[in-house]
Amino acid sequence: MKFTVSWLKQHLDTTASLAEICTKLTALGLEVEGVEDYSQKLAPFIIGHVVEAVPHPNADRLRVCTVDTGTETLQIVCGASNARAGIKIVLARPGDVMPDTGQALKKGAIRGVESQGMMCAVDELGIGDAHEGIIELDAAAPVGSSFAAYAGYDDAMIEINLTPNRPDCAGVRGIARDLAAAGLGTLKPLDTTAVKGTEKSRIQIILDDPACPLFAGRLVRNIKNTESPAWLQQRLRMIGQRPISALVDITTYLTVDAARPLHVFDAKKIKGNLWIRPAQGGESFEALNGKIYTLSEGMTAIGDDTGVLSLGGIMGGSSTACDENTTDVFIEAAYFDPLRIALTGRALQLTSDARYRFERGVDPLFTLDGMEIATRLVVELCGTPETIVSEVEVAGKAPVLEKTIHLDLAKCFKHTGVDLPVTEQEQILTRLGFTVQQENGRLRVTPPSWRPDIDGSSDLIEEIIRVKGYEHLPATSLPRHEAITRPAIDTEEARLHTARRVLAMQGLMEAVTWSFMPAEIAALFGAIPDELRLVNPISSDLDVMRPSLLGNLILAAKRNVDRGAADVALFEVGPAFASAAPEGQRTIATSLRAGLSPRHWNAPTRAVDVFDAKADALAVLAALGVPTANLQITTDAPVWYHPGRSGVLRLGPHPLAFFGALHPQIIDACGASGPMVGCEIFPEAIPVARNAGSAKPLLVLDALQPVTRDFAFLVEGSVTAAKLVKAVKDAEKSLIRAVTVFDVYEGEKVEKGKKSVALSVTLQPTQKTLTDAEIDAIAAKITDSVAKATGGQLRG
Amino acid sequence: MTSDDLSGLKSEWAASIEGASSLAALEDIRVALLGKKGRVTELMKSLGTMLPEARKERGAALNILKDGIAALIETRQAHLAVGALQEKLAQESVDVTLSARPQSEGRIHPTTQTLEEIITIFASMGFSVAKGPDIETDYYCFEALNFPPDHPARQMQDTFFMPPKDGKPMVLRTQTSAVQIRTMETQKPPIRIIVPGRTYRCDYDQTHTPMFHQFEGLVIDETTHMGHLKGCLLDFLRSFFGIEDLPVRFRPSFFPFTEPSAEIDMGCSRKGGTLKLGNYGDWLEIGGCGMVHPNVLRNCNIDPDKYQGFAFGMGIERMAMLKYGIPDLRTFFESDMRWLKHYGFLPMDTPNPALRA
Fold this sequence. Notes:
The structure holds 2 protein chains of 2 kinds.
Chain A lengths: L1 E3 H7 E2 L4 H10 L3 E7 H4 L4 E11 L2 E10 L4 E6 L9 E5 L15 E3 L2 E3 L2 E2 L27 H5 L4 E6 L10 H10 L4 E2 L17 E3 L6 E8 L8 H9 L7 H13 L4 E4 L7 E5 L5 E3 L5 E3 L5 E5 L2 E5 L17 E7 L2 H11 L4 H8 L6 H16 L5 E2 L3 E4 L8 E4 L2 H6 L5 H10 L3 E5 L2 E5 L10 H12 L22 H15 L3 E2 L5 E2 L1 H4 L21 E2 L4 H13 L4 E11 L7 E11 L14 H14 L8 E3 L6 E11 L2 E9 L1 H6 L6 E6 L25 E10 L4 H11 L4 E10 L8 E10 L8 H19 L2 E2 L2
Parallel strand pairs in A: 13-16, 27-30
Antiparallel strand pairs in A: 1-11, 2-12, 3-11, 4-5, 4-7, 5-6, 7-10, 8-9, 14-21, 14-22, 14-23, 15-21, 16-19, 17-18, 19-20, 24-26, 25-26, 28-29, 30-31, 31-35, 32-33, 33-34, 34-35, 36-38, 36-39, 37-38
Helix pairs in contact in A: 1-5, 5-12, 7-10, 8-9, 14-17, 19-20
Chain B lengths: L2 H17 L3 H12 L4 H7 L6 H40 L18 H15 L3 E2 L5 E3 H4 L19 E5 L2 E5 L5 H9 L4 E10 L10 E11 L4 H16 L6 E8 L2 E12 L6 E2 L4 E11 L1 H6 L8 E8 H9 L12 H7 L14
Parallel strand pairs in B: 1-5
Antiparallel strand pairs in B: 2-4, 3-4, 5-6, 6-11, 7-8, 8-9, 8-10, 10-11
Helix pairs in contact in B: 1-4, 2-4, 5-10
């Protein structure tokens, strides 16, 4: 919403400075977004008179002008084609800061002739885009005086960011009312005197639409539609509107001035009477913006015998548009249902100043006042001695929603902590136009018709404290009730915290990637249900909610590799989606490693492999309290993993994590190159530990020395390490404390299809030191157990 | 042989011990003198042929000689050992300017770090963390939060729409406020929660990304008023930024789910084109807040005549940018390893207000 200070002062009697006005506007919730202070910007420029203009001795297109400033005579070289003797111009002198460049003008010589200033064009002054020659002022313009004052630019434009709850402030008068309530001046009375009609309107109104409860029209005949007067054109230009003609400008003026949109029809182009009814659907019309719109059923259409002319409350039509030949005008002032306007505007993707106000809610009781002000302006600006004004034709009536709100006298203090005397609360509401009565320890309040946003007592409290000023709110620390005995985050959130820290300690960088991803890559991780496809994606490659985090991490790794990274180690802990239901979203800790380990003089370079991913998964699970020694490892990881180089870590039936090398086809489909490995950990799948409390189990230290013995077994190639280790452990559960595989050999020295697995077994005696004979007996049990379980033999 | 002879021998042997240039040469000398067939041993053996009187005298002299020689050898041995060790160490020297074995360097994302810092501060004020889904029903994201259907207020946020599910319109949540409703539906006052999470808006330019993180605060009880809201945010922002006199200003604004509503500004300076937080007279918008709208309470079956409270929301990336001087929002989501290493945090840097440097 844009307006100027002089426009504001038409409604507000105030001596406040521009800065004071702006500060107060923001303090009232009418946030100032921009200020263009023309009076300051144009302050240096004065009106000059070109006394003489002669050709430049060295350049055909230039002229050497003698300019009278009222106090001195300057020589100015000018290239504009309209620079000539006798005209009044806008003069910039050396040292003046030019609005278009922000630079001070310098005295100079142009082709050897001194130039002591500049005659300005519109764009150079920053008051328009035109650059067709220099500005020519009226012959009566006073030489030597301020251009800004002369041309109506001793003014400032203010733009506020209007919140959708304040339709009243979509008009200058509403803004003035707020400022007056806050003590920045007095609201001036508004002249809404009726213009007497002297005939019946030839055009009757047939109203048949519940979304238009009130429609008023009036015919004004024998007028002349000219250009608007300078003051009106000037105001519209300063708020960025283009003056069109007096009739059209009057409607724009009232829209901005009083938040009262109107429409003017060229009455001679209306065939028969005007009807207002919901569209049947399929009717089309050409709007004033030159585009053709086809109406859907229920949109409020305005038409005549020929069909639809105008879209109620949003935009008029070309066929009845007023132009320079218009002599009879039919003025429309109506009230439209905000919801209907919003739905219609959105469906047709048609925005207008009228829609903006109607969909937020205009003052229904001001409809006929708006008509009278508009009529007066039409007569004033376009009237001729023959002008005849009709009576106002009114169909329907203004919807009045008489609301009564009770405000408990203590409530304002209870909700804000600001102890305001009741009289002050009453005064603030009254200045805003509310009707207030005190009764039975509370205020009985009726909001004015221009405040559809006021609904309950909390709205009244906001009005009171807003106008009083939020700076009066005390800053009171929240009271602390009791000792805080529980953590702020729950177990699941705590697990995510730990997972992140552990993965970072594993040397991975935490990434945050989009929750969306390209559909074709998402499909590699399973079928995407339609409910996870965005209706309006920001771009076609971010069009579905991700089923897995791996795809985005692969793409991120590729970007890093493309930038020259040799090794990539990323992780993300974030949501993946199986459905649009809340339970379809789960948080997955996902890691991705790609490339080679860094080259180093003392460590061999190697490519990432499945055991890097397994280490990441196990590190997280261990930190989350999973007894990792009890984990089962199965080889049924999902299809996006390498089938022979991946696994699932399970505790009971629940998979806690997938890990492995990624499937080359997946890497390829992402446009990346391998190898890449990763893991996906499901923190919420980990069973919650049963023991509560912070105490750890008692530490029991073994008094006796452990004994270590090494074994090498020759087994079939298909026998897994896990199976072999289990066979060893089962041999003597009470004494075997640890079994570690320290070598695996397949090659020439063993039979084809077999492998040699070397294990280190730690025995922990608890009662007495083991004798050699006892150790030998255990070794024999181990050998037997392995033979039975795997067919493996001790390697000779 | 007289005792003079013995002292002559001792001088001679002492010279040869002193002359031994290596531990091996010294060992040879030791064997030659004190070994089974060594010279001193031979002399001791000769005692057997002597008369008792002479033997006693001679024996004492020989013992002195033997102990003296042994001591000399020991001294010389210690000296030679030091030299040998020094020589060995000299041979073991390496080029210590070579690089150490590579350690992988992980980092925590600034968004995570900032969020944990925020949680830590609010935890100390008795807040707990609540969560909700990213894909929300229109009801939780808008309707229950007092956004009337088709009201222009809905256009304040550029919403990502999802296909309807079970006949219900679905969206990606535009704000974490949806969790206010989910919490109040299941939990009765008093309530003190903060809600961090991913939020989505259909907007992508220099200062907007289609996804970002927000956190939301909600306090509901019988007495909390707007002054508490101001105090709570003042306490939080001063603690978070570590600026004791950071001023906070409220400006009236509009959010459908709060009444009265306010924008939150912090004090700053923009002198010389650089932003600096503090009590410098200028203001920077940091979030929105207000007293929870009675309609919102009613929608959760909480009696607005009995209970009241406030809600606020801020962007986590924005807080991180301001605190850690990160210039561009979009870089948070690019997963550039160089950026992550530079702006990220070491894994042991867990937020702890007691330990903050």
